[in-house]
């Protein structure tokens, strides 16, 4: 960069006009090369973000090129003043894209908060590493954002947290990832529950077929609806006595229970024939699961038939 000399105001004007009016690439290159030192100087101020200095300088050069392409010499300002804004803007965009795995906001207020938070904290606190609610409120007022935005940005500026980091500094303890607990049921439980529900639904459908039309009407009205009618209401619809409705309901329930139990036992017997297990392995997990499901099937029948 030392080989490229600085331009005076007259030279800047001349090169800028040749580029804008004639599209002279040589003039554009001269304008850019003469300010490479400015781009590098600005880039060095952003070394504290943990990014490679070479990459920051490269982004600064990108901003410099954009500035040279858009510079209007008739405005009366020096090119360095105009280019400084574009150089900083390019570096800011690069840092916001690359600094964190979590995307940081790109609004004007969020950008200002990102780049000025640390300096504002130092102004109001002797311990810049500790952000209290009182300090957050003061900083938020200075920067025109909410205290919640300040606290969130402070957490992001402390860096991304790796789930593979050991819980103890000596590196011998378990990783944080191993301490995470998923409270949702696993795939095996979900599959077993879905299979159980399917079997219960099939058993109920098969059991209802043993009822007469009148028994089915009473049973479905009294046992399979969210808001079952009273005995008197159903008796009025069917033009019979409430006592007769009660008798039909109890008789239908016993018939459905016997039919459902028979269906489930038959289904289990068929399942055992198609998926037999060697007698030398009586404790295999799916045998235990089958026993548990059988217990739930009996509960399904004995507890009371409900809408599935």
What does this structure look like?
This protein has helices at 9-22, 25-33, 36-44, 53-70, 79-98, 108-124, 133-143, 147-157, 187-208, 213-223, 231-238, 242-274, 285-303. It is mostly helical. It folds into two domains: 9-157, Four Helix Bundle (Hemerythrin (Met), subunit A), CATH 1.20.120; 187-271 and 285-303, Winged helix-like DNA-binding domain superfamily/Winged helix DNA-binding domain (Arc Repressor Mutant, subunit A).
CATH 2nd-level architecture of the largest domain: Up-down Bundle
Q: Mind describing the biggest β-sheet?
A: none
- By CATH reckoning, the class of the largest domain would read Mainly Alpha
Q: If you compute it from the alpha carbons, what radius of gyration comes out, rounded to the nearest whole angstrom?
A: 39 Å
Count of DSSP E strands? 0
Count of spatially separate domains: 2
Please estimate the helix content. 55-70%
General form: elongated
Q: Any low-confidence stretches, pLDDT <50, length ≥5?
A: 275-308
**Strand composition percent:** under 5%
Give the helix/strand layout.
Elements: H1 9-22, H2 25-33, H3 36-44, H4 53-70, H5 79-98, H6 108-124, H7 133-143, H8 147-157, H9 187-208, H10 213-223, H11 231-238, H12 242-274, H13 285-303
Helix pairs in contact: 1-2, 3-4, 3-5, 4-5, 6-7, 6-8, 7-8, 9-12, 10-12, 11-12, 12-13
